[in-house]
Each structure stands twice: as C-alpha cells, then as structure tokens.
Amino acid sequence: MTAYLITSVSVVGAAPTDLLIRDGVIAEVGPGLTAPDATVVDGTGLVALPGLVDLHTHLREPGREDAETVESGSRAAALGGYTAVCAMANTSPVADTAGVVEQVWRLGREAALVDVQPIGAVTVGLAGERLAELGAMADSAARVRIFSDDGHCVADPKLMRRALEYVKAFDGIIAQHAEEPRLTEGAQMHEGEVSTRLGLIGWPAVAEEAIIARDVLLAEHVGSRLHVCHVSTAGSVEVLRQAKARGVRVTAEVTPHHLLLTDERAETYDPVYKVNPPLRTAADIAALRAALADGVIDVIATDHAPHAVEDKECEWAYARPGMLGLETALSIALDVLGPEWDLIAERMSRTPARIAGLTGHGVDPAPGVPANLTLIDPAAHRTIEPAELASRSRNTPYARMTLPGRIVATFLRGEPTVLDGKAVK
Ligand code: DOR
Q1: What's the predicted TM-score (pTM) here?
Q2: Which position among 18, 96, 303, 311 bears the catalytic label?
Q3: Where is the Dihydroorotase catalytic domain (predicted)?
Q4: Catalytic site residue 303?
Q5: Domain parsing of the chain, residue ranges
Q6: How far is residue 276 from each of residues 173, 230, 397, 407, measured CA to CA in Å?
Q7: Domain spanning 4-47+367-423: CATH superfamily
Q8: Is residue 150 within 6 Å of ligand 1 at its C-beta?
Q9: Measured on CA atoms in the order 362, 99, 252, 54, is the torsion positive or negative?
Q10: Could you report the per-residue pLDDT of 386-396, keeping only the tens digit for each?
C-alpha cells in the first residue's frame, strides 16, 4: 500500500498540520512530518474532514442501470467527498430480500469507491401490505440495519408498529418517507400560494407532519428507533423538537435542496425542480436551517435521485420526482452553513455514520483511525456543468450555478478514490 503525506492541512478547521497515511490508517498527525517513501499531497489551504457519509442515496441498480449503477453512483459519491453511502431499496427488483441486498453490497465492494451499505425495504415490493424479510436481510452479508420504503410511506399504522417492533431486537431503524398518501393524491408540488397560482395540485405540509407525529408516538410506544427521511417543513421541525425533548429515539435528515430552493422554482415548469417531498417556502427553509444548527435535524442527506432523460425532460406532470445530490452536497452545505467545519463534519459525517452503525467512518483523523477522509478547497468556486458529472443522469437543479468549495481528494481506507479533483479510477 502506498503511504501518503498530506502537508499543512487544516483538520476540521484547526491550525494546519501534517497527516501521514500508512497501511490504510492515519499513522501520525503533527507539524513537520517526514516520510521519504510517501506520496506528498500539498494540503495548503485545504480542510480535511472525516469522509462524508450519506444516509440516503438512490443507486438504481438493479433495474435502472440507464439512470445510475452502483459503480457510477459510487464514483459520484467519491467525487462529492463521500466514503460511505446507504443505498435505498426502491430498485427493480426491490431490495426486500437477502439476495438483493447482498447483490447491491457485493457490487459496492467490487466498485470499491465508497462503502455501499444497502437499506432494506420495510414491506414486500414497497407495497405497504406485508413486512419484508427484515431478519434475513439483517443476517445477510450486507448486515442491513436500516429499513425504508422510501419513495412510498409506510402508511398503515399497524404495519409501521410491527416494523418498529421487529427491528428493535437488533437495534435496527425504520427510516420513514413521511407522506400521508390520501392527502397527496395527484400532488405535483407544495400546496400554497404558488400552486394555487399555477393551478397545480398541492402536496400539503400537513401530509408530512401528520405521519411524523404518528410515527414518533409509535416509536415512543415501542421504544424503537425511527429515522425521518427528507424533512421539509417548519411544522415537522416542531413535531421533532417536541419528540426529542421527550426522549423519543428519533433522528431526522434534511436534503441540500430543501435547504436552498423554494417552491417558486415550479414557476419555470422545469421538471428538474420536481421532487418528493416538494420544494417548500422560504419560511420552511429558515426553520430547517435553524433546526440543522440546533440539532433537531441530525443529518444532511442527499436523496441523490438520478433519473433518465426521458423521465425528466417531459411535461411536469409526467416527470419523475428527484434530483441529483452527491456531487454538490458539500458545496450547498458550505453555501448554507458557511465554513462551520465542525458542524459540517457533525451533520455530514460523524452523525450519519453513527446512525448507520458504520464503524471506521465518521471519525476525525487521529493516529490509528481508518484513513477515510476528504480534502476540500473552501476558497475555490466551480460552475456546475451537468455533462461533467460522474452520475449517469443529468438532473441537477444547480446546472450552471457557481457554487463554493471543491473536493480535491477523497481517501477510502488510505487509498485515494479522488486526487486533484478527479476520480482515480
Ligand atoms: O424525489 C424523490 N425521488 N423522492 C423520493 O422519495 C424517491 C426518489 C426517487 O427514487 O426518485
């Protein structure tokens, strides 16, 4: 294994120091290190963070390899500074058996660009009728600990209760896509002033808030772990705040796009802005940002949702919901939070790694720690060109926007997956 000496790098915003990586771990940390056999990476002006961890990625394999594969999504992740991603279960076939989650896990190992941790479906075929083989997925080589029907809500309260009870035995988590389906029938965008003006059927905030309120009560009753995917409204934040104050075992994520973009984007009728849950209002964004700062929201997760051209470049009503996220998330976080490196490390690496139980990830560089880290140039700016993204899909809402920050290098267990801003393989 090659040794790497990263010189004069700021570790999570601290004064510059050197990092020596050897045999997959951080061997030494301190100023003025020398290692004649090591490849030197000049870290001047760069910030080192523990490798980012995404709790919510759609890799589309098996089934929609035209939109993304485990390999292309892993490369996008590495370029975005990630060393681990949790792959959502809404593939085709659905990841609702030990066989499918093991397939995704194995493809991740073969690509070897990030650690791919499969998420298992809660219900068979995401149909919301019968529990999937949660135990078999947990016992499989993929060692699944998070289960989600993301894309669909586990709407049946009895099934949700059973799922929470089942995973409690192995300290698993049910990650809920909170959307009361009866309240969102036919919905195209956030229900509010803009939807009224455009004449599009609205997706009311209460459809999210009602499910979160129900589920925190169920999680409290069962004493099990609940994670809330892509929180998007100010009201949801208040429900979560109260639940956390009572000690409910609930965690929550917010996406970069829900921290930045409002429902006014729908005025363009450009389906690149169609997403589920939908883009909300400026007041929601303000509440989400405050919750991210004070910890009511634990994590920034991308909800990276690649879609083929024919599923996005069509009429708004026919377009699939979802946006790319892996290659731009850190830049959006930097834009939204500023150079608050400790907070960024907490929300994008340490906490998601802890929630997912990914040992060796989310740990700040220190002697003996696995060398999973990313180097960022915070002073750089880049203009997002969809054609240059590593994802197989092009549905980024940030096309031609100039964003702060550039990922210079990413290391997975001591081996670079990205160097000089380029994928190594
Ligand atoms: O916008 C979304 N896209 N929201 C989801 O919950 C699912 C995702 C997808 O799979 O495309």
Answers
A1: 0.98
A2: 303
A3: 47-234
A4: yes
A5: 4-47+367-423, 51-356
A6: 21, 9, 14, 28
A7: Urease, subunit C, domain 1 (2.30.40.10)
A8: yes
A9: positive
A10: 999 999 999 99
